[in-house]
Amino acid sequence: MSVFEQKGSEAVSNRAMPGMTHNTLPLLHEVRHALERLLRTGESTIIDLRAIPFGPGDEERLLSLLGEGEVAATLDALGRTTVRESRFSGVWIVDHYNSEAERIAFQLEVIEIPALLRAQTEDMYQSLGALDSVLNAEMHGPE
Amino acid sequence: MAENNTLGDSLRRHGVSRRGFLKFCTATASLMALPPSMVPAIAAALEKARRPSVIWLSFQECTGCTESLTRSHSPSVESLIFDHISLDYHHTLQAAAGEAAEAAREAAMHENKGNYILVVDGSIPLGNPGYSTIAGISNLQMLEETAKDAAAIVAVGTCAAFGGLPQANPNPTGAVSVSDIIKNKPIINVSGCPPIPTVITGVLAHFLTFGTIPELDQYNRPKVFYGQSIHDRCYRRPFYDKGLFAETFDDEGAKAGWCLYKLGCKGPMTYNACATTKWNQGTSWPVESGHGCLGCSEPRFWDAGGFYNALSVPISDNSQTVAFAAAAGLVLGAAAAGLNYKTKDEAQKAHANVTVDDLEKTS
């Protein structure tokens, strides 16, 4: 059984959209090369899916082939962002929405962990100040 | 009016976290059609970006360009960008009218001399100034005096960029484009009828982010959006390569999503971002909904032959017919041109399409 025939790829097939999903497999090849590069050199890759000329069924078929992995996270920053690991470890599906639930960016990240999941230095400095305020209030009472 | 606060200051004041800022930068990179690897550079530039003044002039236009922008949707990226520019004059959107509106334009020009961005939609009538005036000022006079101290000009829509529909034959108002008049300022043409809203904001975002104009093509259009033809980015392209064409709008080929070339699609000669950016929040675009591209982002698209004639149908100008024949490798001469002209005439009468193969057979 080839990688494209594994579980999860049956939901959307070429039969559902006859001959219309031209860009799915080339993109999956690109992901494979990116994953190989990540393993070999440590270099990560981000693919902007909004720059790919998808036809009807392309996105659905790609997501079906990528499947679901072990990790899923949701960020709430200027609207919702979902970060899902695909069933291929190191290949992440990152979907950005605005506060009106409209998609503003859609990417595949081939990386150990997407940068947005890491705590950011600037935010941690702000947290330090906020923690000081909380501790100060708890130890000395509200001013 | 323009302020000295940076975008970074503005976002922090709104309680946006660093994660939120990076997400904003990611969406901005996508908006500007830049690679995601540019996000750190965009973040560094946007952190320091200052609020520019924008003056928007509307001349001979249908308001479609403004509608495209304002009726699209209001995602955070565009909202934040528009929150961060100072739109000091736009007579369709502003509350002020008459003398107060013109006073706002003059104040913005004076206070931001040499630094404001001038956005223009609509063509400029040279035949008779009375065809289009604002507050008693002719379009030509208003353009010339507002362009004088602008940092750059963005010509939004095919009318401002190339003359558009007002310039279509017989061009009753003597309509011309911005670049036909202004010769000493950087001009960015954002053509389309209307232009894609994210392309308009993408160009403004580029100027806001980097303080420079993007790389332009031969028609002064940003290459990131107009660098490739519709045909080259079309998801139906593989059908063209295989020679699979829809012959009518409801035949089996059309239902199977085959190439629309024979139905008049102008994708091969049209440069725009519709195939990837799409319309209505990325829902679809003309070719995906089953209609060929009209070529609306190209100069003289309205006079470039019928929308439903295949590109290989000879066009009306006889000199161009001969040029077409040369390009197709046909034998030149009056007889060949005459034959093509006859073929074209018959095709037009019958509303039929003619392919390169048909022409080669007749010659």
What features would you describe in this structure?
The complex is a heterodimer of chains A (143) and B (363). Chain A has 143 residues and is an alpha+beta fold. Chain A has a single domain, classed as HupH hydrogenase expression protein, C-terminal domain (Ribosomal Protein S8, Chain: A, domain 1, 2-Layer Sandwich). Chain A contains 3 helices and 5 strands. In chain A, strands 1-5-4-3-2 form a 5-stranded antiparallel β-sheet. The longest helix of chain A has 20 residues. By secondary structure, chain B is of the alpha/beta class. Chain B folds into 3 domains: 220 residues, NADH:ubiquinone oxidoreductase-like, 20kDa subunit (Rossmann fold), CATH 3.40.50; 84 residues, Cytochrome-c3 hydrogenase, C-terminal domain (Cytochrome-c3 Hydrogenase, Chain A, domain 2, Irregular), CATH 4.10.480; 50 residues. In chain B, 42% of the residues lie in helices and 10% in strands. In chain B, strands 2-1-3-7-9 form a 5-stranded parallel β-sheet, with helices on both faces. In chain B, strands 4-8 form a two-stranded antiparallel ribbon. A two-stranded antiparallel sheet of chain B has the order 5-6. Chain B is globular, with a radius of gyration of 23 Å. In chain B, 47% of the residues are buried. The C terminus of chain B is likely disordered. At the A-B interface, strand 1, strand 5 and helix 3 of A face helix 2, helix 5, helix 14 and helix 16 of B.
